[in-house]
Amino acid sequence: VMRLTKPTLFTNIPVTCEEKDLPGDLFNQLMRDDPSTVNGAEILMLGEMLTLPQNFGNIFLGETFSSYISVHNDSNQVVKDILVKADLQTSSQRLNLSASNAAVAELKPDCCIDDVIHHEVKEIGTHILVCAVSYTTQGGEKMYFRKFFKFQVLKPLDVKTKFYNAETDEVFLEAQIQNITTSPMFMEKVSLEPSIMYNVTELNSVTQAGECVSTFGSRGYLQPMDTRQYLYCLKPKKEFAEKAGIIKGVTVIGKLDIVWKTNLGERGRLQTSQLQRMVSLENRSVWGWVGHSA
């Protein structure tokens, strides 16, 4: 079993010196001869090569877990009725990830049965990939074995929300989103899906020279442990605005939809649980921690 992930950019540690130093031009020449460096920019740490993953790596909530499964017949006999099954065990459920549950008629020596599985991770905590193989030998004996691969699913984002209830029945939502991974993220989309009683206006852009420009600038990168604040205004729909008593009693506001990309375009997506405000006769601001659902 091998996890399928995108490669990473190869990095090297440039070692250089001035020509008047004892090594002279030796270090610079070695860097120019190194095939992993960029021609003309040898002192940069990033090169032109890619590196395959050297370990299992981290898996975050909202990402897609992909794995390559291969069953190889390393005996000198033909085996029959081979059935390969892949299940993912989480803290709350067991999921069948096999593309097909049909048995393969036979597997000759030095031949393989290959499969690629995909699963969008929707729970944090311990996950166990269970690979089970059953087959029949030439003598008619039924054989069976299993292998287990344990990994942890981590939380990628920390989300806090703050509500302000205006006198005009408008509700302002401030969402603080923090990248708690060790790698930069490209924030592709952060939107609020309002409940049925509200329309939403995003307040995360300004108009400059007739163009709508993001308040976060042209680059949507969120560095590790950095936080961004997103602001939204929710207004009651016309058919509900006339019923002030109903609007004041509404606690469910909507949910945030967050889409990001990590190194080399690996995508992740999270939706929060329904955001709820505290109902009060007075205007007040309320902070809350938000749970996630992938």
TrEMBL record:
List residues of the Trafficking protein particle complex subunit 13 middle domain. Answer: 157-279
* A cellular-component GO term for this protein: TRAPPIII protein complex
The chain positions of domain Trafficking protein particle complex subunit 13 N-terminal read 1-153
Q: Name one Pfam family in it.
A: TRAPPC13_N
Q: Which domain of life is it from?
A: Eukaryota
Assembly, per entry: Part of the multisubunit TRAPP (transport protein particle) complex.
The record's section on PANTHER family has:
TRAFFICKING PROTEIN PARTICLE COMPLEX SUBUNIT 13 (PTHR13134:SF3)
- Recorded protein name is Trafficking protein particle complex subunit 13
Q: Which organism is it from?
A: Cricetulus griseus
Q: Where is the organism placed in the taxonomic lineage, from the top?
A: Eukaryota, Metazoa, Chordata, Craniata, Vertebrata
